[in-house]
């Protein structure tokens, strides 16, 4: 049998070659890894910067939002796809507390009445599901006699006089109570704030007064806005609602939005 005497030396040289080449190979692998990691970091930073940029741009867009823009942004269509319940007393209280904190830091909004000016109409009117078309509404909680006071403005009635403050409040409500802003945007209305019709404001009740629906040509209104029996007496100084006739318990309460709503003034508020 032939013995290969060079095998040990060859093995040693091979081992030395492998040993000498390993650091280079290791460095190459480490270098490639560092480059790859750095690439990922750079790409990630760029992507993050892009996202931040888009976020900041979106954060500024709200300043020019119209009512429809906000309804789309808050996904109100999806929110109203299912039956909405009316708000609880605790929820209304939390929203009013939010408004009080908001009003202290923002001009352009005020309450229609003094803090001590309250009116409990819970024994007169109660919320209910009116129909699929109208959604929620108010009905008589007991028999109501013609000329009897049904609803009126209170310290829960607020006015917002400019579009910027209105948008800011809507976003504050939506952030704290998701989809509640959708309800408020459905219930609020624009109204003349002076007799000359030169100043407009957005008005909303932070209670169940909002659920008063308007009558149609067939049913008409059974609730009179303003001084009972006096035509054209419904204005910001006299937002009171009386029974226009005898109303039976369980009958829906219906006003006439045309008595106090100024639909053209949304443009005046930039909304």
Task: Give me some keywords for this one.
271 residues, alpha+beta, four-stranded antiparallel sheet, three-stranded antiparallel sheet, globular, disordered N terminus
What do these coordinates show?
- The chain is α+β, with helices and mostly antiparallel strands.
- Helix content is 39%, strand content 17%.
- The chain has six helices and eleven strands.
- It has helices at residues 7-61, 67-73, 76-79, 89-105, 163-176, 180-187, and strands at 109-111, 125-131, 135-140, 149-152, 157-160, 189-192, 200-205, 213-214, 223-225, 240-243, 254-255.
- The protein has a four-stranded antiparallel β-sheet with strand order 1-5-7-6. It has a three-stranded antiparallel β-sheet with strand order 4-10-9, with no helix packed on it. The chain has a two-stranded antiparallel sheet with strand order 2-3.
- Helix 5 packs antiparallel against helix 6.
- The longest helix is centred in the N-terminal third of the chain and has 55 residues, at 7-61.
- The termini are far apart.
Short synopsis of the structure:
By secondary structure, the chain is an alpha+beta fold.
Question: Beta-strand percentage?
Answer: 15-25%
The helical percent reads: 25-40%
Whole-number radius of gyration? 34 Å
Count the strands? 11
Record the strand order, biggest sheet. 1-5-7-6
Which secondary structure elements does this structure contain, and how are they paired or packed?
Elements (H helix, E strand, L loop, with lengths): L6 H55 L5 H7 L2 H4 L9 H17 L3 E3 L13 E7 L3 E6 L8 E4 L4 E4 L2 H14 L3 H8 L1 E4 L7 E6 L7 E2 L8 E3 L14 E4 L10 E2 L16
Parallel strand pairs: 8-11
Antiparallel strand pairs: 1-5, 2-3, 4-10, 5-7, 6-7, 9-10
């Amino acid at each position: 049998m032939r013995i290969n005497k060079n095998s040990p030396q060859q093995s040693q040289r091979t081992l030395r070659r492998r040993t000498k080449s390993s650091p280079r190979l290791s460095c190459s692998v480490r270098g490639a890894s560092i480059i790859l990691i750095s690439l990922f970091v750079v790409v990630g930073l760029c992507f993050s910067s892009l996202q931040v940029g888009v976020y900041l741009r979106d954060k500024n867009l709200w300043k020019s939002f119209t009512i429809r823009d906000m309804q789309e942004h808050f996904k109100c269509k999806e929110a109203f796809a299912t039956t909405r319940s009316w708000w609880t007393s605790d929820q209304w209280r939390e929203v009013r507390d939010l408004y009080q904190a908001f009003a202290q830091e923002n001009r352009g909004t005020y309450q229609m009445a003094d803090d001590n000016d309250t009116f409990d109409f819970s024994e007169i009117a109660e919320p209910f599901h009116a129909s699929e078309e109208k959604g929620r509404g108010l009905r008589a909680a007991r028999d109501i006699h013609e000329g009897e006071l049904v609803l009126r403005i209170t310290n829960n009635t607020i006015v917002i006089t400019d579009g910027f403050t209105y948008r800011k409040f809507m976003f504050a409500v939506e952030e704290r109570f998701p989809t509640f802003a959708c309800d408020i945007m459905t219930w609020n209305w624009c109204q003349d704030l002076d007799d000359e019709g030169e100043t407009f404001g957005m008005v909303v009740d932070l209670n169940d007064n909002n659920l008063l629906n308007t009558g149609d040509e067939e049913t008409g209104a059974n609730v009179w806005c303003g001084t009972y029996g006096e035509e054209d007496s419904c204005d910001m100084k006299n937002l009171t609602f009386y029974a226009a006739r005898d109303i039976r318990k369980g009958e829906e309460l219906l006003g006439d939005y045309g008595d106090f709503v100024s639909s053209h003034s949304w443009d005046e508020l930039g909304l």
